[in-house]
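Tutorial sheet, problem 5. The two components below are modelled jointly, 543 residues in total.
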Amino acid sequence: MHEERAWYLLSLQLAGEATPEELEELRNLLQSHPELGLRAQIMHNIWRSQQNQPATNDHYDKHLQRLSNHLSTPVLQFDTEPKKHKHRWLWIAASVAASVIIISLLFVPNKQKAKTPYANNVVSTRPGSKSKVELPDGTQVWLNANSRITYNQHFMDSTREVQLTGEAYFDVASMVSDQTGQKIPFIIHTNSIDVKVLGTAFNVRSYPGEKTTETALIHGSIEVTLHNSPDKKIILKPSEKLVVRNDDSISVISDENEQPENEPMMTLSRIKPYKGDTTTHFETMWLTNKLAFENENFDNMLREIERWYNVTVVLNNESLRSLHFTGVFEDKSLNEVMEALSFSWKFQYEIKNSQVIIW
Amino acid sequence: MQAYHALYNLFFNNLRRFCFSFVKSNETAEEIVSDVFIKLWQIRNKLTEIENLKVYLYSIAKNFCLNYITRHFKNPVASLEEVDIEAVISLDNPEELCISADILQAIQQTIRQLPPQCRLVFQMVKEDGMKYKEVADVLGISVLTVRNQVAIATKKIAETLPAYIRNTQAPQATPKPPAKTGRP
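Model answer (structure tokens):
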């Protein structure tokens, strides 16, 4: 009888749920019944036995991958994998320290200053596809074709930083640090400029092979820093657009007839609304799936078409290069676009498989 | 992001063991734990509204487990009573426990024979260090039931133990002095 009461009290003690009175009672019982002592002791030992299989970095990595998949839209494709089961990523063995996020194997053209040795999260699109992704802080990013953003696990520490190649539209979530009470800045690194976000919605275009990098601000305010002149900071206000000449841009075959233009290092201008409608701008038309050109030179236009439709264009008519084009194509096929263009500019073309030949 | 990682590390082991009790597969248990943490991520801005995070996580895990079982077996399962629970209780090796290998086996047998819910409750209290109220909230039973279940398990195990050490490999040859109470 005493025994049963003792085990009952013992269970409370082991679980940490005993009242002082109950503890007192147990103490007395054990004193007056020493034959219980051994078993009580062993019960304590049993209770203390632990078998832990703590989480490994592998476990966490796998979890982050599932979390990423869960957050992304199905359109997203990951570099190097052909369109397959969307959970497949290409892995490298994780590098360095503690919390490592997923690495994606890709051909990173690392002209940029060597970033941290930590692993990176990469989201990218192929030519011919656009997609939208949500970053861990709630920022929405729309990626145009053949574009890529990268961020690492320090993303939300004291700053939020991403690398961008290509074109993306950002809608940046506001974030305040618990420690400092300050807003956590959002910074986008491209090959030639850094964009620091002080406000919300804007477009950044930095394709390798294009002569310029541009950023157009829709809402809020952003601060642009040029890699070549880091002390020069330019703050953009809504509806302003900054175009910066890339120093190491691949120069297009220069026409001997062409005047060497004295192109300014950069130009600050207003973004042009489309047809007087101030809510739609050329720079962000790709978001609504409209292929738009605003006084674009032929070369850039062709390159955009290449990305948009995932084709290659061969230009065998040099005289066309100097032309500029303004226009919008909405939901038009490659054929329709080429037909329209060939009409206006009187050239011939042929589409064979994924190649467009113009002469 | 680091707080999230810390939480994951903190709860991973116990939640996985908890889920294992229901789904009986380590791989599935890990996936469900991952799902729980995906859910946690989704509501991360409302975390301050949650009174007890532990209870919250375990409750979600329990529901996910029940869903899983429902999906994978013919009969839909609505409550824990219908589930065959495989709770796991850790025991150190016999030397650590100052018992013989035989006794250890006897204890394991006793544990195996505990009713499933009793074993689960015992696991949650002993292994996961949960308070009676927390266990009650997660499992949807009364605190009194929890208390009784733990008492039953304790009693059954204690009764399997020898009152005295005789001719065992344990270093001590004499009965131990009365145990001091109030030890951690």
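Marking note: Chain B touches chain A through 51 residues (CB under 8 Å). Full credit if you identified this.
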